[in-house]
Amino acid sequence: MDWGMKNRLGRIFNHKSNRTVMLAVDHGYFQGPTTGLKKPKETVVPLLPHCDSLFITRGMLRNCIPSNTNAPVFLRVSGGPSILGELSNEDITTSMKEALKLNAAGVGMSIFVGAKNEDRTISNLGRIVNEAEEYGVPVLAITAVGKEMGRDARYLGLACRIAAEMGAHIVKTYYCEEDFEKIVEGCPVPIVIAGGKKIPELEALKMSHDAISKGAVGVDMGRNIFQSENPVAMIQAVRAVVHENYTADEAFEMFNKLNRPK
Ligand code: R5P
Fold first, then answer.
1. Catalytic residue among 6, 101, 172, 198
2. Residue 174 Cα, ligand 1 centroid: separation in angstroms?
3. Of 196, 200, 175, 177, nearest in space to 255 by CA
4. What is the mean pLDDT of residues 164-191?
5. Which domains does the chain have, with CATH numbers?
6. Residue from 22, 26, 207 whose mutation best tests the ligand 1 pocket (most atoms within 8 A of CB)
7. Share of the chain above pLDDT 90, in %
8. Which of 50, 90, 166, 199 would be a feasible disulfide site paired with 235, CB 3.0-4.6 Å?
């Protein structure tokens, strides 16, 4: 691996745990002003010191994130359809030149395996990897689940493996209780989990813990952090699970302590 690629990956993985807490705040790229991100600056800025990287679009980055932040940036470079359209109809929206200009530590895009435009999204991933490799930029592939796609290990394992075969350096997928370890086994690059829809804090911590114990290297979590009643407390609790091997109960206790009114 080239020095630039190693350096960029080294910036997002914690040197002690070799794991990562990515904060996903890119939801507006197809969902518009999502709950919790209606005023992105207010929500995201206090979380920056607690994340290992920020997963975001260029528009939100330029307009809402102070340029002196230390948080490495993973730039979402795919998009196209809105929540009202055909979700798999994505294309590349942001160039590698733009990613470099924004000092991105990596780029990320979705693939829609099994959906109407799966072939285009998968070949787009191959193309992005070709370009990113030229500049030493890691690519995160997201196994998007459209409205009609399943979330079982068979489906997610297929999607993750395809992403890795296309050359993705990290794969973001969803957690499934049954056979998650088989998804990890079948995917030769590190896997981080998306959090999915908001669930109670303890459940989200349990999901993070279970994913880590079954081989995930971290999370790229959004709604379960920024829609929490206390996002700053929640991200710290998630960090404790990912980096310090806290159990879900221990991390929940930490969340409750941090969440107590002072
Ligand atoms: C989809 O909108 C994005 O890829 C998100 O970054 C991803 O789903 C992670 O966010 P969440 O934890 O809210 O699912």
1. 172
2. 9
3. 200
4. 98
5. 3-192 (3.20.20.70)
6. 26
7. 96
8. 50
